[in-house]
């Protein structure tokens, strides 16, 4: 637990952010989960009680510092994860199992940034769906 907290503090320090209890708890929850999760799931995973507004503002400040980003929207719920596996223009692919609903980060899968007939692509996100190894 101490190593996780130390890592989270280092991430905040490197981003030039104050180490508030809410920021520390949110980053630690995302580190523990290691997959995209909703704001509600983040709240449930926290070690301390925070209201929804605090969590929203914390995610917003972490997003502006490029520590956390919104990965995708599913059933009107944004999913968040740490940005450490992504670049400014490209997020690693994600795989969602259509049977169990779990989303997995495919950080070892690299897809080229696509350019197409005059379109200016500012950010690429890929989400794949199918059956995970456990459900197959």
Describe the structure.
- The chain is an alpha+beta fold and about 140 residues long.
- The protein is about 35% helix and about 20% strand.
- It is built from 4 helices and 6 strands, in the order H-H-E-H-H-E-E-E-E-E.
- It has helices at about 1-15, 20-35, 40-45, 50-65; strands at about 35-40, 70-75, 75-80, 95, 105, 125-130.
- Strand 4 and strand 5 form a beta hairpin.
- Helix 1 crosses helix 2 and helix 3 packs across helix 4 (about 50-65).
- The mean pLDDT is about 85.
Quick recap:
This protein is α+β, with helices and mostly antiparallel strands. 34% of the residues lie in helices and 19% in strands. It has helices spanning 2-14, 21-33, 39-45, 52-64; strands spanning 37-38, 68-74, 77-82, 94-97, 103-105, 127-130.
List keywords for this structure.
4 helices; three-stranded antiparallel beta sheet; 136 residues; Arc Repressor Mutant, subunit A; 34% helix; 2 domains
What's the shape?
Answer: globular
Oligomer: single chain
- What is the top-level CATH class of the largest domain? Mainly Alpha
Q: Provide the β-strand percentage band.
A: 15-25%
Number of domains: 2
Give the helix level as a range of percent.
25-40%
**Helix/strand/pairing category:** alpha+beta
CATH homologous superfamily identity of the largest domain: Winged helix-like DNA-binding domain superfamily/Winged helix DNA-binding domain
- Compute the separation of the termini in Å: 34 Å
Q: Mean pLDDT score, rounded?
A: 86
Using the CA coordinates, give the radius of gyration: 16 Å
CATH architecture of the largest domain: Orthogonal Bundle
Q: Which parts are unreliable, with pLDDT below 50 for 5 consecutive residues or more?
A: none
Q: What fold name stands as the CATH topology of the largest domain?
A: Arc Repressor Mutant, subunit A
Can you list the strand order of the major beta sheet? 1-3-2
What's the total count of β strands? Answer: 6
Q: Enumerate how many helices there are, as a single number.
A: 4
């Amino acid at each position: 637990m101490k190593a996780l907290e130390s890592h989270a503090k280092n991430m905040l320090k490197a981003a030039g952010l104050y180490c508030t209890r809410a920021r520390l708890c949110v980053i630690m929850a995302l580190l523990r989960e290691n997959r995209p999760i909703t704001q509600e799931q983040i709240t449930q995973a926290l070690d301390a009680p925070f209201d929804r507004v605090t969590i929203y503002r914390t995610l917003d400040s972490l997003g502006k510092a490029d520590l956390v980003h919104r990965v995708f929207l599913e059933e009107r719920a944004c999913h968040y994860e740490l940005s450490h596996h992504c670049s400014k223009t490209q997020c690693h692919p994600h795989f969602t199992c259509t049977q169990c609903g779990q989303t997995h980060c495919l950080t070892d899968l690299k897809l080229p940034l696509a350019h197409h007939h005059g379109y200016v692509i500012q950010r690429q996100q890929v989400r794949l769906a199918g059956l995970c190894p456990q459900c197959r």
